[in-house]
Amino acid sequence: MSAAREPYVGRRVKRTEDPRLIRGLAHYVDDLRFADLLHVSIVRSMYAHARIVSLDLAAARSAAGVVDVVTVEDLDRARIGDVPCAASMAGMKTPAHRPLARGKVRFVGEPVAAIVATSAYAARDAVDLVSFEFDPLDAAVDLEKALAPGSPLVHEELGTNKAFEWSVASGDLDAVFKSAAKVLTQRIVHQRLIPCPMEPRGCVAQYLPGERQLTLWTSTQIPHLVRTALAAVLGLAENRVRVVAPEVGGGFGAKLNFYAEEILLSVLAMRLGPRPVKWIATRREDFAATIHGRGQLGMIEGAADAEGRLLGIRYRSIQDLGAYPQLLAPAIPTLTGLMLPGCYKVGAMRMDLTGVYTNKMSTDAYRGAGRPEATYQIERLIDLVADELKLDPVEVRRRNFPAASEFPFKTASGLTYDSGDYRRAMDKALALAGYEKLRAEQQSARLEGRLLGVGVSSYVEICALGPSAALAAGGWESATVRIEPSGKVTVLTGASPHGQGQETSFAQLAADFLGTDLDDVIVKHGDTAEVQYGIGTFGSRATAVGGTALWHALGRVVEKAKRLAAHLLGAASAEAVGFEGGVFVANGKTLTLAELATAAHHAKSLPEGFEPGLQATYAFEPKNFTFPFGTHVCVVEVDRNTGDVRIVRYVAVDDCGRVLNPLLVDGQVHGGIVQALGQALFEEAVYDEGGQLVTGTFMDYALPRAHDCPRFETDRTETPTDVNPLGVKGVGEAGTIGATPAIVNAVVDALEPFGVRHVDMPLRPEKIWRLIQAGGKA
Amino acid sequence: MKLAVTVNEKAHEHEVEPRLLLVHYLREVLGLTGTHVGCETTLCGACTVLLDGVPVKACTVLAIQADGAKVVTIEGLEKDGVLDAMQQGFWECHGLQCGFCTPGMILAARDLLDRNPHPTEDQVRGGLDGNLCRCTGYQHIVDAVLHAAKKRGASAAPAPSPAATAAPGAGRHA
Ligand code: FES
Ligand code: FES
Predict the structure, then answer these.
(1) In chain A, N or C: fewer CB atoms in 10 Å?
(2) CB-ligand 1 contact for B46 (6 Å cutoff)
(3) pLDDT given at position A4
(4) Which of the listed CATH numbers 3.10.129.10, 3.10.20.30, 3.40.190.10, 3.40.50.850 matches domain B2-74?
């Protein structure tokens, strides 16, 4: 122990999870080894919408190596429940979502049957032996057409494709629009995206009939919530189910869900136990049958006064839910509503949302989840106002920001932004970018015929989800700190990190608090049999909520330790004991943490009423969300001959509150920006009119590659928050939320000479080239 | 079919199905699960290994094509408990988050430096075009490669293997 060492918190500490990962020794689901393992391959629909006339599984059943085949009838007989949606809206029409299709298939990739065999190759071979007859139906694909009378119905029994309507409003919008000097209107497409974590989904299930214990190893962000949902669907007692998230190869919301395959594998495990069964999605399956993101179409209207102050915003939108409402899907666009005013003082607002079923894969939370939509359109709107009034877009932002002194700031949508200084973050970003100089460069570039564009985006996002009132399954988080008899420290967190690095940042926190070395702390997560109940990792919550739970648990354990130390050192009370650098001091005598931990466990001499052992658990319930913010500046050059967009510079100033490890925060910011870049420039899930997924592989769905990305120039401001004692706000989604509008604003700015006011994403070269050819009127 | 192959300097002999993919042979038969499958269509690079010194995407190579060859996987880079310069670079520079793309990235990046010991940032970005990462935004990966290049330059850089020099651009198009 090093009493005098610098604190770990705040330093660029290398990650403790890396050694296993860079040596290829980590265990993702597919890497776990099991004796007697069986393999599952899933028969999926190739139609977007069709009646199942017949399904002949005889040949598959008798194929070499095949052990079992199940269809929805088997699930019905075993009384297996539906794939649940945990975010139903008032008055929502909710269809039955069987884990295997019954009667009809409703999207390409929908599971129809599952085949179990002794090898993965044999299971896959048997899929080809299934013969079926489908009666294809017209598909509901386009959102507006799906809502029109006469559209094919995804679920006939509902009598409509409209799932729900939802509104949020405040202020006298009509009056505001009537009195406004300017009203700007823009149709906005938030195209469907495919999350594509590099590790596809997959799971292994095993049921031990003797112990009556089911274990599901699954690539998930929410092991405890999956356990609760799985037990309910299977009709098992929750304490007979264990869910393990082993190493998880990225999630981005795609694994913040509960899927048909997790149910199916568990059902198969119970039929075939004690033999374990495994299914790993192929990339094609992952494209077709893992949730998609965004998929919102809307009309934004802004009312502004002559000085560019936003008076009111109206937004009417349609959310594409896909064929079935997945876990949180309906709630995602409501986040768009809550964040509609962005970082601006807006007097009145209204959002009217319609959720619609279509013959496509379900949408749900994808990095940012509803907030990128809000930020994108308000930031586009601000630029439209600037354009209309011939003002600098930066100036329009400045005029609409609340002042730092106005925080906590109540928004038109009813939220209270905890803390912020939007002007400071923007000024810093503009200074770093050299904004004035960039504008001058742009002028001279234009004279040379070069299309240079500068885009600015100021964002605020809602993080640290969240107070339990806002989340169906609760929004708190848990932590246990266990000082082992030797003084080594085990932290159990209810969060479920999968790349964010909390094994390191939580160890930093614990090591500083307890005065140990970083190596003395180990952070465990993801196994419901090992870790107390928790909520999981999403919504930039793991550090702000889970880290705060840890901080409190550390406080508790030290408090307990001090009581014992007082007893052993002969001090009058725990308050008389000092603790620094891992050493307890009183009466001129000392005890190390290890000595104290041994004494607590050996329990030979304890104070009155002292429980043996040395551990504490804390569940933290946040009183509010946190609201990180920042400003991004993007400089692009558009090639007028090809329409190609090149990002020349990218500056990001983010304020995510206190930073535990700047290295990790930088990583989150970079990764987030690149996902936004993907949305802005390349990515789009395309279904054709018949509902076929056209972008079903990495060949057709373009993820950004290294050469597509510039070197990011990042900096921070740090505004404290009182929502949690750590002062952290969360940073997992900032880049994805802030960057998309910065890039699009830059491209629109570059195309200004052609009179372009708006372009829908993705800004592929062909689209830009056509705009240039048409002089902006494509 | 009979397959004889040396993997990470260890000789193996197995009877394999002709259609068995190299990546499945490594993972399922030899238990070397550090080589990941991200797309099974040659598009993501997660499965990159060295086949006689040339980076290949093991999801689109048959195991039997490696008959008589030397294969190096991520598990074979550490020597006597010392990490390879590229592994160190990734650790130092936070070149990974979820780690799923990392083994393939590290092998592709090593090949890049074998062929071009002092790459510019642009050359690094171009050279890693065959490998996708969804987490890092690539900046720290680029830093890791440049860091490893510096480290390699400082110590006597290992001479590129003859096969590697004979196949310029292999990393990019494998
Ligand atoms: S798994 Fe081989 S390239 Fe993706
Ligand atoms: S680190 Fe997750 S894909 Fe690269």
Answers:
(1) C
(2) yes
(3) 64
(4) 3.10.20.30
